[in-house]
Design goal:
alpha+beta; 5 helices; 9% strand
């Protein structure tokens, strides 16, 4: 109604955001965050799927009142995990899941800081842990249920290969 009064032609289209219909040229698309919604669904799925391995992994969760866009899905190994970040990354990479280390976990260790006056407030053990034991994999909005399930399956395969599927709780410290 307001658009009509302003002399603006509006055409509302409801469609699958991953398979939009062929359209004639247009001036504006109003996106209400559909792609963010797809990534949020993927992240929620992976967190649920990986909960059985939570004694070894710190899993991300949205806190009440927040909305994360989930461009990547972060994984941090818990202290005492019976495997290394490299082992897990290599396993995923061998199955075509690209991973990246969380290298900004400790800004105090970034080489550029030697060029700036700064101070370190303590030893930053958690930041160091995340930097050395965290990684993420991409969460593209084009990832659908088959790919999402495959990635979760690769984690399960990793834990199975390590003999950790159904492992007794409490073997890794929290």
């Amino acid at each position: 109604e307001r658009a009509q009064k302003a002399g603006v032609k509006v055409r509302w289209i409801q469609a699958d955001v991953l398979k939009p219909p062929a359209l004639e040229p247009f001036d504006l698309i109003f996106d209400r965050g559909c792609y963010h919604g797809v990534r949020r669904q993927n992240a929620a799925y992976w967190t649920r799927a990986l909960e059985e391995f939570e004694e070894f992994l710190l899993l991300p969760r949205e806190r009440p009142g927040t909305r994360h866009v989930w461009f990547g899905y972060p994984i941090v190994l818990r202290r005492g995990a019976p495997f290394t970040r490299k082992e897990m990354q290599d396993f995923l990479e061998s199955r075509a899941v690209e991973t990246r280390p969380i290298m900004c976990g400790n800004i105090a260790e970034q080489p550029v800081l030697k060029h700036f006056p700064c101070r370190e407030a303590g030893s930053l053990p958690n930041s160091r842990w995340i930097m050395r034991n965290g990684f993420f994999f991409g969460n593209h909005h084009g990832i659908g249920a088959p790919q999402r399930e495959a990635i979760a399956g690769y984690f399960r395969d990793f834990f199975q290969a390590k003999g950790l599927v159904g492992a007794a709780k409490g073997s890794a410290s929290r």
